[in-house]
Recover the amino acids of this structure.
């Protein structure tokens, strides 16, 4: 790993790939518009594309409620051609249970219509090269096995359910892989885990130091607070905000009372974070950005910063978002999405200034 400052990168929008929908293979009749070689969207892996196709085109076969999350429905999906093939090969075979589908990675979380920004977040994650968010698409449902409000309430964000994510056994804290207070988090940042201190030595929790900067960058661009700042201590929330209704802000005066949430890792790779619940705040004004998310972060990922500095974020995101046909159409196409992207670009410029002012280094993972 080596570091450098942001001065290395120069804005050169003339080299940005031009977005032209007609140049993207697949036409407008496919839900996921990407060629087999992914030439137009190289930031997606083949696995990403396959999961996006499952989320966008899979038929609902079973469903289950998610305990403690009344607004979210877990739905198992199966591609029509796979379902027909299995029925022909073994018509008398018992139907797989919902749990079996989920363990095989064939499940999704269907969220509220208002959470559509989570789909945008997935594309931003891949374009920036962070690769920590779970695949997500926007889609409509028509299956009779789903509750009426899921089939008549408009398109919803659908996120792949990862069976390998590690959850705490505590039912009141199952949205974390490790219990982490804000005070412990600050100690973890100072310890530079995996660099200066062993990943499993105190105060480290097994997560690499570089992971927190990826998370902070991502959350700042999207203005996600329900992770590093669930109590809304770093900005002025709306009166209708959950943290206001639950009187969370009253705890901001005592750092020891503050806890982190949605700090998740995979069992197979516990040193890397997984980003979930990324809907954030698309309309957060620039004079009310949450800089608390950046506190204690002493370095940033080189690749993501180079994209922000290149001036190409708009063209790259338009190419990426076009791959999700329903999201593209429902969110108003290039015209409406440009305005949204420019909001994120402005936040990116503010982040770059923050890095320059503090002369923070960039890192490249080997």
């Amino acid at each position: 790993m080596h570091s450098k400052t942001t001065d290395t990168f120069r804005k050169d929008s003339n080299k940005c790939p031009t977005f032209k929908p007609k140049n993207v293979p697949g036409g407008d009749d496919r839900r996921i518009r990407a060629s087999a070689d992914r030439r137009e969207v190289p930031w997606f892996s083949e696995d990403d594309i396959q999961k996006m196709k499952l989320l966008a085109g899979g038929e609902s076969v079973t469903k289950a409620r998610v305990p403690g999350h009344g607004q979210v429905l877990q739905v198992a999906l199966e591609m029509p051609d796979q379902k027909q093939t299995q029925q022909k090969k073994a018509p008398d075979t018992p139907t797989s249970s919902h749990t079996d589908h989920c363990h095989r990675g064939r499940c999704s979380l269907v969220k509220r219509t208002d959470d559509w920004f989570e789909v945008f977040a997935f594309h931003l994650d891949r374009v920036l090269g962070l690769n920590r968010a779970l695949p997500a698409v926007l889609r409509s449902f028509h299956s009779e096995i789903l509750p009426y409000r899921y089939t008549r309430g408009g398109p919803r964000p659908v996120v792949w359910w990862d069976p390998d994510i590690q959850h705490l056994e505590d039912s009141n804290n199952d949205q974390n892989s490790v219990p982490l207070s804000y005070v412990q988090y600050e100690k973890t940042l100072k310890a530079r885990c995996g660099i200066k201190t062993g990943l499993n030595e105190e105060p480290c929790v097994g997560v690499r130091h570089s992971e927190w900067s990826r998370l902070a960058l991502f959350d700042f661009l999207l203005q996600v607070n329900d992770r590093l700042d669930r109590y809304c201590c770093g900005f002025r929330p709306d009166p209708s905000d959950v943290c206001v209704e639950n009187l969370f802000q009253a705890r901001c005066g005592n750092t020891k009372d503050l806890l982190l949430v949605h700090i998740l890792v995979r069992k197979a790779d516990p040193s890397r974070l997984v980003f979930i619940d990324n809907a954030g705040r698309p309309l957060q004004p620039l004079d009310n950005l949450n800089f608390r998310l950046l506190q204690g972060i002493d370095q940033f990922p080189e690749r993501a910063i180079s994209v922000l500095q290149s001036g190409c974020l708009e063209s790259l995101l338009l190419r990426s978002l076009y791959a999700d046909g329903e999201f593209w159409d429902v969110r108003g196409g290039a015209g409406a999405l440009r305005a949204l992207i420019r909001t994120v670009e402005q936040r990116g410029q503010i982040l770059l200034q923050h890095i320059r002012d503090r002369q923070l280094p960039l890192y490249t993972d080997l």
Summary: Residues 3-363 form one domain. The longest strand covers residues 69-78.
